[in-house]
Fold this protein.
Amino acid sequence: MRHGKKFNHLGRTSSHRKAMLANMASSLIVNKRINTTLAKAKELRKYVEPLITKAKDDSTHSRRTVFSYLQNKDSVKELFGEVVDKVGNRPGGYTRIIKTGFRLGDNAEMCMMELVDFNELLVKETTEAPAKSTRRSRRGKKKTTTEETAAAAPVEEVVETAPEATEEPGSEGDTDAEASSDEETKTEE
């Protein structure tokens, strides 16, 4: 029975899965952004976020613990140096997964996984727009009275014109006479 075995095995043996996640975590820490499948990214998020939390406490024990997971001296140095400096005040949620579509060939759902504070475009937008500290009520806004809305809305005048008379097909002779009488009245005025 497989009760309680919840995580995704990714179609690999245990040793292959551990090695793959360690390599992907090292690549993410060094390059700050990787492209992979959505299933691997979700598993990598569960693997790498506790390591980043562990790296906030810069001690020999935590360095050795993180090294036992990553097995890469350069990525451990990068993690405890540059990465922790940027995410040190963040209470979790260090990675972002952005879906990028489907892969040609096997139609696997692809995504881009990145460390949150290393995306310069999004960080720049958030620093330019200061966060509002006001609290908003859950109730709706007050209803405006009909007088205020009538004063605020500009009133447009609608001018309707009378429809022109149409000619009947059997009365062609009458129209020539009417047209000549219309011309006479215009010249008299």
Notes: The domain at 14-128 is CATH 3.90.1030.10 (50s Ribosomal Protein L17; Chain: A,). Strands lie at 33-37, 95-102, 109-115. The mean pLDDT is 82. DSSP finds seven helices and three strands in the chain.
